[in-house]
Amino acid sequence: MRGIFNLIIILSMVLPFSACEDNSETDQGGTLDSYVSVTRAPGSDSYTIKFTKEGEWAVYKGTTPESIDKTEPVAVTSEDSVVISGLSTTQRYYFYFEFNGNKEEGFVKSEIRIAVEGQPNFADLGGIVTMDGKHVKWGKLYRSGDLSRLTDNDVSYIASLHLDEIVDFRFQAEKDEAPDRLPPGVDTIPIPVVDGSYDVDSIKKWLMLGNTEVFDTMLIHVNKRLVNEEQEKFRIFFDHIEKGEVMLYHCTKGKDRAGFATAMILSALGVDRETVIDNYLKSNDYLSEITEQTIKYINDASNGFINGELLRPILEVRPEYIQTVFDIIDSDYGGMDNYLRNELGVDIEKLKDLYLE
After folding, report:
1. What are the pLDDT digits (tens) for 202-223?
2. What is the tens place of the pLDDT at every residue in 312-323?
3. CATH class of the domain whose range is 21-111
4. Domain map of the chain by residue range?
5. DSSP for 193-235?
6. Residue 345 in contact with residue 280, Cβ under 8 Å?
7. Which CATH class is domain 2-19+113-355?
8. Is the pLDDT of residue 175 over 80?
């Protein structure tokens, strides 16, 4: 399977991408924070905050969720949006919101998609709502694709996340192709998962033959292997998660191995499956620009002889990919709770204590 990722890395190196400001981020409905979205463009000194509930919103800011100054708002507005400007371009900010002066229902929020130029699929798990109405803490768990193309400003911005550990799910060949650029002082934990025999030559052959079936089912087979064959690796991963430190975990594109890891974390924290699937599919939005560029590049470079559209199933994620995971866990392992506790050794109660509020 490493060859698939190497092929995509090669194409990604050829094709530039830009992480644009994303204005579509909202949490699921039912809680007050679902009416607020926070976004920032890479390198910008401004955050754009949008409100979809009419009323008076007071906004406070800080550089960590705990350090927000709740005595002096940076904005009070009844408009549907506000821009908070003049901020450091290398510092992530968090915001505390009060609605119509109700201090008892105040909440913290920041951007979900971390705004860096060099990696479009970088996100905070913060703010996701569990089935019992709790929220995943902001600024504790991040997932992304590789960090090889970060700019200097990106590296400084990521330093402001105060990461304690970075778990890298890639194999050495992937890391050699695209070595991470990291802030100093962050421990990197190598936990390589999913290797296989699909090489670049095989991918090229299947493209030239127009083999749709192999691409349609490839990532289903990957997810089957993640469930059945990589349990020891994910036991190690959860051992690190249970330290309660600030962690970023990533693979090459941030959508398959990191997507599986995110689904397991959110399931352990008590997030319903519909929300887990919705979160899993966000990679399609974040990677849409580079996906379209990759397909176009293949079509143009081959003068239309090779149909780049055949690659779409492995450039994207689809509901059936993660549904395969759920189906296997339910049918073969007695359900998610049993799989997490007995196969991956997860201390679910400890995780909830560490990461929910």
Report:
1. 777 888 888 778 889 999 999 9
2. 999 999 999 999
3. mainly beta
4. 2-19+113-355, 21-111
5. ----S--HHHHHHHHHHT-HHHHHHHHHHHHHHHHHH-HHHHH
6. no
7. alpha beta
8. yes
